[in-house]
Design brief:
This protein has about 375 residues and is an alpha/beta fold. It has two domains: about 190 residues, Glycogen Phosphorylase B (Rossmann fold, 3-Layer(aba) Sandwich), CATH 3.40.50; about 170 residues, 3-Layer(aba) Sandwich (Rossmann fold). The protein is built from 14 helices and 13 strands. The strands form two sheets. Strands 3-2-1-4-5-6-7 form a seven-stranded parallel sheet, with helices on both faces. A six-stranded parallel sheet has the order 10-9-8-11-12-13, with helices on both faces. The longest helix is centred in the middle third of the chain and has 21 residues. The radius of gyration is 21 Å and the shape is globular. The N and C termini lie close together (about 10 Å).
Length: about 375
């Protein structure tokens, strides 16, 4: 029986897009491949077992997922003696692995557009760390799993020699994201007014997420319509004050509501009650919030570049992320044209239903089997 080791340490107490991807991968794989043995590297802070499948064992690894011991010393932390294949699930490939490696690359912004990632002194350190690990993944992985065609194309453009080793494993959206009855008590609990319609933006505050562009597009659309708010759900940090200063300069400070990370149940209610999700990123490997919003029946306005047109599949309004007027036109259409909004809700639900985690897991399993067959 061949053994596949999957790094699951992104699954932890804090919500994570990559953690969601890995969680759904390991939920599907063991049942699909009872002839394989899976070793899951687990974050000790996870708190619970990741799988109860009989062909799964779990090893706690205290080393941080994105740290020096993972990048340069994982083979000293983990015993690979009986492992036939390793799956690195979060962009970087550890050094000196004694077995073939599949690396999931979500995006290559650290290589192509590092200014879109974290800035400042910490950003400088992370730029060198991640670019080192991603370059190794592109150069040395036996196979690369890209979570969208857009990411696969970006990898091929950056490193043509990696194109034939790059496979598209399109991410999915969990059935947990679904239409729910609006609960206005949720808004009250967040300090929001239930009687005020709102546009929703969800995601960490990083340059590539373009939250400044969301503010500018919202202001362009609704500066003279004081009854509409913009709600941003994000992990608020030291730089959040910049958004508040921009909102003030745009004359919308009293209508921009910042909400810290919320529970999934609260997020479902926000998707249910929002007029639209506004997601004007400059780049996404996939873009979990747009898939989640569609699955909840929330109309989506997103960017006309990177993976976002691919993920929404014609079920959203697209706008250039650096064009506030285009963003404003899309938002205004949804708010003012109920037929257009209803069409987006319907087509969004249909598109989300196509984004199946089973298909994602099957695509990864096909990569595993191909590599394992070459070793036999």
């Amino acid at each position: 029986m061949s053994t596949v080791c999957i790094d699951c340490r992104y699954i932890g107490p804090r919500p994570s897009g990559i953690g969601e991807v890995v969680r759904n991968l390991i939920a599907c794989l063991p049942g699909m491949a009872p002839d394989l043995r899976f070793v899951l590297l687990r974050n000790p802070l996870c708190g619970t077992r990741l799988s109860t499948a009989p062909n799964v064992v779990e090893w706690d690894v205290a080393a941080p997922a994105n740290g020096p011991r993972t990048m340069w010393g994982l083979s000293r932390v983990v015993d690979f003696t009986d492992v036939d294949l390793f799956h690195a699930t979060f962009n970087i490939m550890p050094a000196r692995l004694p077995v073939p490696c599949v690396t999931t690359i979500h995006d290559i912004m650290w290589l192509t557009n590092p200014a879109w990632c974290r800035t400042g002194p910490r950003g400088w350190i992370e730029r060198h760390f991640y670019s080192h690990g991603i370059r190794r993944a592109i150069r040395s992985s036996r196979a690369i799993a890209a979570v969208s065609r857009a990411s696969a194309d970006a990898i091929a453009a950056y490193a043509p020699h990696a194109a034939d080793r790059t496979h598209v494993t399109l991410s999915g959206v969990s059935v947990r994201f679904r239409p729910v009855e609006p609960d206005q008590n949720v808004l009250t609990s967040l300090g929001l007014r239930p009687d005020r319609p709102f546009i929703l933006t969800v995601g960490q505050y990083a340059p590539y997420k373009n939250h400044e562009g969301a503010l500018r597009g919202f202001a362009k659309a609704f500066s003279h319509r004081p009854e509409i708010d913009l709600v941003l759900v994000q992990r608020m940090g030291k730089a959040t004050h910049r958004l508040l200063e921009l909102a003030k300069s745009l004359g919308i400070a009293d209508r921009v509501q910042l909400v810290p990370t919320v529970s999934e149940q609260v997020l479902l209610s926000l998707y249910a009650m929002a007029k639209a999700l506004l997601h004007p990123s400059f780049c996404e490997g996939f873009g979990n919030p747009i898939a989640e919003a569609m699955a909840c029946g929330c109309p989506v306005v997103t960017s006309n570049r990177s993976a976002m047109p691919e993920v929404t599949g014609g079920a959203s309004l697209l706008a250039a992320p650096d064009d506030p007027a285009a963003i404003a036109r899309a938002l205004t259409m949804i708010v003012d044209d109920e037929k257009a909004a209803a069409c987006l809700r319907r087509t969004g639900l249909e598109r989300a239903a196509q984004l199946q985690w089973n298909a994602f897991a099957e695509a990864n399993l096909a990569i595993y089997r191909s590599i394992l067959a070459d070793r036999s």
